[in-house]
Design brief:
single chain, alpha/beta, Glucose Oxidase, domain 3, six-stranded antiparallel sheet, 13 helices, 21 strands
Amino acid sequence: MAFSLLFDYVIISGGTAGVALAARLAEDTSVSICILEAGKDYADSENEDVKIPGKYMANLGREWDEGIFNVPKAGAASDRVLYNPRGKGLGGSSLLNFMQLIRAPVSEYDALAASLGATDWTAAEFPKYFKKSQHLTKNQPAGNQVHPLTSDPALYGSGPIPNTVPVYTPDIATHYYTACKAVGMPFNPVGGSGNNGGVWPALAANIQPTECLAPMRGAKNLTVITEAHAGRNLFTGSRATGVQFQDQKESATGTSGEGRTVHAKREVVLCAGVFHTPRLLEISGIGGRAYIPDGVPQIVDLPGNATEDHPSVLCLCETSLDSYDVLEDPRHYRARTKDTGPLSTATLFYSYLPLKAFMDPTKITEIQRLAQHAAVQNTDITSPRTLELFKKWLHDEETYQLELIMVPMGLPILPGGEAVPGKRYIFFSIVLMHPFSCGPERASPTGAHGLEVDLALLGNAIDVQILTAGVQFVRKVIEQDAMKTGAGVRAVVPGPGPLDTETADA
């Protein structure tokens, strides 16, 4: 392979952040940029699943889904290996087409500065970077005129990530909105802007490289190397000046596959995501000594290794209305992928809830009492400031503690939720916003993808109680007449029987 070994910027991973960053940097023709991406470039792929927004569930477990698995260790979910979808290819996890990009409330951004010490990262500073990275397209009302989603163009700029108002609303939407209003969640026409209460269909954030990198493809100052597995960062003193990588294309053809190196005159930028960025730091000698592999000299002592993820409990239901499950019919498939068809955008419905909206007051008091005794010595959270912030938010009546997503299709990965041909489904994802459970990840030569991940999901009683209350709240939603009678919704997994923490954990 012929390519320059010396660039101004080397970006590790061509995912959501890496592609957007490369597109911005490449606008300056006086600098050279190299992207190292472990996966392939699917821009010219004949497989339609990776290109059609409404086919997002079809992408799980495919070649472009790396699939990070949580190792089974101590915690409430310790008896099972848990799956975390992760895109692998140019475009990163956006290849999976969930395509959601939702802004947090002002209080959460300001907490980065006020509570965690990141003084330049406040709610006043973030919008300028949102505008640099995003632009708004198809800004017409989503669905019918009774429930239009209106997005303020002033919140967006001219950046490479297109944000699209959903152009298709499934039949169940009106019934769902009615049920949500009955339980205290009215329709929110500006949801996703930071004011995220109520219920609303999310904007789709599509960073497919065919769009984001299209203006830059063929540019002399941008080199994209796919199937390049990044390894150690190289340092001059304490400054990263290069990256070793393995060329998998050459390995596959049997030509060489030996290690290669690219060098950076200005910066090496790690954009490899929440799992692989720490791994690359550790194998390069940055991290706590216990997490740096044997034989690698420690360059920077960066103590602490506690990765937080948002554990999700899934609830599957049948419905009598059309859902995305019926869209595979070849008689209608092509027409429905057009700009205004059901598959043209990924339509998901969101709600963000404070504790008071879904949890019994006595249960709230109980988890607040549990949190009083929480300390870094007896919880998974290793940062005292993060722990104190999470404890404070349990007493704040406005802080969102639960994310509720309704998806108008079945869920093929849910045990016991295998689709029956001819039936139509929806599912709910009940997501914990500020988990007290977290755990380490470490570089491992024997682990899948060079990683061992243990997030200790549901290892804390506070997390279990909040998620259990979330499942009970979903049951309340689907029992509303608009859902039960109007949309023919009935629970499948978990079923309608008694619910306990073991059921919620499943």
